[in-house]
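Hi both,

Apologies for the delay on this - the queue was longer than expected. I finally got the magnesium ion-bound model through. Below you'll find the protein sequence and the ligand SMILES exactly as submitted, and right after that the structure tokens for the full complex including the ligand.
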Amino acid sequence: MSHIRLQNVSKVFDATPEQAQTALSMMADGMSSRDVREQTGFSVGLYDINLAIEKGELHCIMGLSGSGKSTLVRHINRLIDPSTGKIWVDRVEDDFHGHESAINVLELGDAELQTFRQNNVSMVFQHFGLVPHMTIVQNVAYGLRVRKMPKAKRHEIARHWLNEVGLHGVETSYPDELSSGMQQRVGLARALAVDTPIILMDEAFSALDPLIRSELQDQLLNLQAKLNKTIVFITHDIDEAVKLGSHITILNGGRLVQTGTPQDLQNNPADDYVARFMVANSA
Ligand SMILES: Nc1ncnc2c1ncn2[C@@H]1O[C@H](COP(=O)(O)OP(=O)(O)OP(=O)(O)O)[C@@H](O)[C@H]1O
Ligand SMILES: [Mg+2]
């Protein structure tokens, strides 16, 4: 059982089911999402995505701006509902009562969805998303406070994860007192503190200077070697994808072009689009 599975997922934004169907049948005829938008006015974010992400993968989603990376990842914790298709996430062990082993994300009611998000998926954002009036330790502990963990315990856990991401002596600082690289370490510590099996990272390192970015990449790889989380990492930078990814999925115009290990993509690129990225990487 894959940890995350998308089955025939398509997304047409702001469309009725009939309008979505029209746009999707044009995609099925081989039209590009750009042409569909020009002819119908509807934006196809994703078209017929089939993707399985296994437990413990650091899976990079790669593609140019507008290729559908953020749209894909936001389906996993249902920040976006698909127009068609199914999304499954394997149950965390604590939740397993011997029934179905996978959660059908689209069938969750509001309360179940909230529990699902709290227990299964955390996110790291491009612009850090720290709460400005909370101290660093309060920011990292925030998800545990939501779970009603006592203060002493949640601060102890927060301090542990701050230490793990290489931050010392900043517990009582405020976010705007930290450099952007340090703020993103806090963002990472916050995602790790809630101990969800899945972490979604949308261009998490893209706003950082090259040297700091490289340090954060190394840190993520070191942590992942210990933690073995399932990480879905969005980037438009092929170097970053090859350095970090155990697996890479390439999107183009809302379509999945190829998924595989960096070596698969290097050795057998599915088309010119993939080949051009891989050449750019080896140059
Ligand atoms: N809320 C929305 N409403 C309408 N169209 C949208 C919406 N979100 C995304 N789109 C469209 O869907 C397509 C995919 O967008 P998406 O944001 O997923 O791309 P991306 O690969 O993450 O791009 P970037 O690298 O710029 O972040 C684009 O054409 C975009 O304009
Ligand atoms: Mg995006």
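Main takeaway for now: The chain has one domain: 4-282.

I'll put the files on the shared drive as well.

H.
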